[in-house]
Amino acid sequence: MNTDSVGDVADVCRSAGSVAILTGAGMSAESGIPTFRDAQTGLWAQFDAAALATPEAWQRDPATVWAWYQWRAALVRKSEPNAGHRAIARWQQLTPHVSVVTQNVDDLHERAGSLVTAHVHGSLFQPRCSRCSTVFDDECVLPTEPVASLEPPRCARCGGAVRPGVVWFGEELPRTEWNAADAAATTADVVLVIGTSGVVYPFAALPEAARDAGAVVVEVNPERTPIGSVAHHVVRATAATAVPAIVERLGLGT
Ligand code: OAD
User: Fold this and answer.
1) Are the C-beta atoms of residues 11 and 189 closer than 8 Å to each other?
2) Mean pLDDT across the chain
3) Is the CB of 195 within 6 Å of ligand 1?
């Protein structure tokens, strides 16, 4: 890890009035949750996004789609927040004006103790009726192994099939969440972008929008991404290594 970058980033963050933290799948990688686009281990290297994460896939075969998302929900249930999630939560608890915006559909930020401003791609744990949008809050069956097919439950109100509460390719982002994400990114003094490949829009536009609005942009990612060309500082390290190191250097006390 480039510790000079961590020191520089901590200096920048210490003097910031407000910090927005934008996270992607890499944030949860060290909790054992696979990312989407990492070679070999990424979900899209093993599964076909078009067959699982689109409205068309749902129309064609809801039981296959539901089974895949419930398997992922089971994986998250078995996982724990990592040192990066915990450091962000501690930072947020000790400093006013640190907001968290995530593309992740897991709940690891919350389980670490963070308040999340926006889940822009929804949540694995907020299924809703595909017909009338009524929230479904009964317990769902969570398969511990990937299963080919699992019949989605039915909505108690209208009998429609219950769908995962996530955003699929080709769908609009939830407006309230997006507005909150955009506001957090474009009003912060410092924007920390952690563990995202920066290729899925509109989220991928937030670092540049933040920079245009005057923020100092910092990327934390062990790999090169397009965000590197927007960021003022890049920390080439994993979330669970870099974020605790940055927060440690802030000298927040306990
Ligand atoms: P990706 O899988 O596209 O990118 C993950 C990023 O995390 C890559 O840039 C990795 O280098 C980085 N990474 C891997 N391990 C890391 C670690 N331990 N610490 C820090 N970074 C690490 O995931 P996202 O950018 O989040 O959307 O993907 C964006 C969207 O594409 C997802 O929300 C999902 C997906 O299709 C929907 O499902 C709508």
Assistant:
1) no
2) 95
3) yes
